[in-house]
């Protein structure tokens, strides 16, 4: 059935009634809760922490500020509030502020309804039409947010400057009957924050030069990074006092949550031939967890969830480059591909003074090594890999080339006794494709290296680990050889 197109049709054919936006959101939320429908699809890791607080805020009809470090899905969570709006909302067609047909607010809509009556045209708004988002920057003015007089409109229409038809509505009035979201609130100048007092408390705004108050119907959402208050500005106290709920966001609490978020966000399903082993996903995610607890990385700045997302995409790309060049399928990333993804890691964290001395690239390599060791301990911590370590202790060595064919890499791995005997612990079987076997074998070697059971160097590859006292023994052996040479001479 077609939606009513005029005010008269709306009155006759529709049971729709005017409802304030916060009541509308509350009603739809209660319906979703009663039907056990999932709230805020696409938001992972917040179901038992942030989401209950958001639900309470909406049920209380509060304006909300989300506080959290970068990369904690604050903007995505704000945008998902549109799922609580009605599918369609009638408004006076042509109105800049989405006037309610039954209760027009702007002079344009009032005059149109008075003149056209039941023939007033009606437009239907989707939830996306009713969501307006602005990134706060220091150059934002009160005219951008609230509005100002428009002399050009006055001249073209022949109106006096005091006429309401000369108003240029700012972003906030244009969000009337919807949601207004402001990102990075501390970046908004203090004098501009003052302009939000009325809408948060009295529910109206005053536009410069006009003796009128517009009683807007808006749900206000804000985001802020609490650690940036002193560096880039602050939220003035009277504004914080007017916000109904302050909700803290956080990074994934568990590795499983992080893997699920990265799998959802990363561009990993770029080709049917791409296969990313679970242990590789966990290593990539483990890098972010290791970075968040590393003392050389600034915790106040945070380590965004974008780090593992970018790293996984880059690792897959490196594997894709190798596989396409060698004409191999499927495309399976290895630990070496994660090391090749350093450009996607080094720009994602801020370093403390100690970290600056070490360097971002070296720290990123150490983080990968730490993550490999932790994931290896979960999968193969109790596995008997003595035959592998004994092989290297006996003088064996193995150097894997990143650009070598998988068949050559696998041939080298099979020369190490017992190395591929524990593939089932990684969810891999001997019948799997060679690229997957090579990825698993390299992971085992990297895990042993991370646990200091096998040595690894850029020039020699995998070798016996240098144990305490080994350097002294080598020097003693060298000295004995020198003495023997002198005696012979």
Which band does the percent of strand residues land in?
5-15%
CATH topology of the largest domain: Rossmann fold
Question: What's the end-to-end separation, in Å?
Answer: 108 Å
CATH class of the largest domain equals: Alpha Beta
Widest beta sheet: strand line-up: 4-7-10-1-11
The overall number of domains is 2
Gyration radius (Cα, Å) is 31 Å
Q: Which residue ranges are poorly predicted, with pLDDT under 50 across at least 5 consecutive positions?
A: 469-474
Overall shape: it is elongated
**CATH architectural category of the largest domain:** 3-Layer(aba) Sandwich
Structural class: alpha/beta
Helix % is: 40-55%
Quantity of strands, as a count: 13
How would you state the average pLDDT, rounded? 91
CATH superfamily of the largest domain: P-loop containing nucleotide triphosphate hydrolases
The count of helical stretches stands at: 22
Largest sheet: 5 strands, parallel
